[in-house]
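ok so for the tutorial part 2 we go from a plain amino acid sequence to predicted structure tokens. step 1 is just haveing the sequence, like this:
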Amino acid sequence: MSVHKKIFFLIVLLFPVNLGKHFIISSSYIHGKLLDYLVPTVYLLDVLIVMLLLAWLPFIKATCSRRKAIFKEPAVLFLGSFIVAQLCASFVSTNAFLSFYSVLRTVLYALFFIYCLVNLEFPKDFIVITRLLSVSVLLLALLGFGQWFKQRSVFDNYLVLGEQPYGSATENVAVENVFDVAKIPPYGLFRHPNVFGAFLSIVLVWLVASLKWEGSAWKFFKLGVVGLGSIVLVLTISKLAWLSFVLGILLVWLLLRRGFARFIIVLVLFGVIGGHLLPLFSLKGASIERRSDLLKASYSMVLKSPLFGIGPGLNTAYIETYSVDLGLSRYAQPVHNIFVLLTSESGILALSAFVLLLIALLRKAFRGHPVFIIALVQIILLGLFDHYFLTIHQTSLVMWLTFALTLLQFY
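step 2 — the prediction. this is what the tokens look like for a chain of 411 residues:
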């Protein structure tokens, strides 16, 4: 096995790791408050991807020539348009440094996507990927159980795999009402239990879908991991992740039925429309109202600068400016919708390219293995109501790997 392939599998094994070097700059503060989404960070996974690309560099010509046709795929062409649109948005950004840094990570992960397209083989490498992820999920599940019973971080040290130190006294810590008892859901190695839940909801479906290729030993191990992971998923109290997982498991069976693909397309389209119209409904609940307010503020950004947005990575920097009457001064987070987030930061050109990329992938996925249709539907569903596929490196890498595997199965 080549060195770059070994590095790739190491990256997959370490997908959940949150360890990174943070560089706090003046632009990271808004009205004297430090916003972590504005702190440039170089993660361990970023360094490993750079090492992967450098190790692959001497073999690029040979590996790419074997799969020239893949570069003519509409999805790959739309990806190029997406990056160009984001670069254009960076040039007119009010904070060029943070915007170019944001786009640089997108380019890095896009190169990771290209690497997967020309170097992996389906289903052989997908089986290895799911085996590695099953080990990661097992360790995450054990960590999650420990966090749940301790009601705080286990190691309480960021340097241990990037576990976020937290406890009952931590400001803005996630607290849920469980049978009239206040409980802190497990964070795993993620920045919020919702992100932990989203990661599990997608990866657990991958493990279930991969069982048909496994022998008895790995099948038994994976089933055990799915069982433990499902329990921890419940403990995250992430209701959207619950829905994503249940929907995913159901679709493993339903998508094997002829003609069901059209129903999924309609379901996704209605979900996209519903997610964008959320502010028009008088829904109750603090979380729903905050998310609705974030959408309203971001729509104002879009109206102010529809073509190129306010600048990649800057939604959080301006959310207070556009939400004076919405009470968001203590809830400065990116809008919880990746499509609105993308439009507000990079404009309608970037949004159009990204949507066309998703459509091209869906069209391709319907002719391949059901697990990738499911994963794309999960990403769209979760992305309608949260931002982590664009703002959190672990879930972002899961998204880009999903995109690559969706195309890879045809080559």
